[in-house]
Design a protein that fits this description.
Blueprint: H1 3-13, H2 15-18, H3 22-31, E1 33-37, E2 42-44, E3 52-58, E4 61-66, E5 72-78, E6 83-84, E7 98-101, E8 105-111, H4 112-119, H5 122-146, H6 151-163, E9 170-172, H7 175-181, H8 186-198, E10 202-206, E11 209-212, H9 215-223
Antiparallel strand pairs: 1-8, 2-7, 3-6, 3-8, 4-5, 4-7, 9-11, 10-11
Length: 225
């Protein structure tokens, strides 16, 4: 893509860039570093210095860490147009998790020194604060989801959470990744998805894909347990 086309893409699809003045968008895009990664590759490892922002142009990425027994904890699953950036604003910050590609992924990186030049502008800084506030709200929503004790309600809430962050009604995730995301056993997730399909809430399409058939019903299921 030419530089102008790249700028227009980010200006329309990536909130961190979209809300900045046009001249600042162009400065950031001109300094971005682009990378193509394969499934299973790490974008970064837990503990590495967080001196850049990652924007996922295409593909799926999981943020994860491991407990003392080596069990994986999936913190979040990100996809097209999502951004990894909160850690960069803390002094001497390091990533508190690893980022692993679940599919082929195309990313771009914006380094701290380049972004700092932009947020020195007071209007740009305020827009960043608003975005961070939205991120905090999203994290609180996810914590509420994980506090739900009923397995089927927790799963329903997670599917709603993923649906609201996906394009269309198709959710593309392996059972293992769903289970690790909401601290349930794979067998439990599989069984509860089967019950949801029997009740007409979803349709399992195979190859880690499922379709939301009854959004309102899933929300009622989540909120009523």
């Amino acid at each position: 893509m030419k530089n102008r086309e790249v700028t227009e893409f980010f200006a329309h699809h990536v909130p961190l860039i979209r809300d900045l003045p046009a001249e600042m968008q162009e400065i950031l895009v001109s300094r971005m570093k682009f990378e193509d990664l394969k499934r299973g590759q790490f974008i970064f490892n837990e503990g590495e210095v967080a001196d850049y922002i990652v924007i996922i142009r295409t593909g799926q990425v999981k943020l994860c860490n491991f407990d003392g027994d080596g069990r994986e904890n999936i913190i979040m699953i990100l996809s097209d147009e999502d951004t990894i950036w909160e850690s960069m604003f803390l002094e001497n910050s390091r990533f508190p998790y690893s980022a692993v590609c679940l599919t082929k992924v195309n990313i771009c990186k914006i380094y701290r020194e380049d972004f700092d030049r932009v947020v020195k502008n007071s209007d740009a800084a305020m827009r960043v604060i608003l975005l961070l506030s939205r991120k905090l709200h999203d994290a609180n929503e996810r914590n509420m989801l994980l506090s739900t004790k009923d397995p089927i309600a927790r799963l329903a809430g997670f599917l709603l959470y993923r649906r609201d962050r996906s394009i269309g009604d198709i959710i593309d995730l392996r059972l293992e990744d769903i289970a690790a995301s909401i601290s349930l056993r794979v067998e439990t997730v599989s069984r509860k998805l089967g019950e949801m399909q029997d009740d007409g809430y979803i349709e399992r399409l195979g190859y880690g894909k499922l379709k939301i058939l009854d959004y309102a019903g899933l929300r009622e299921l989540y909120q009523s347990r």
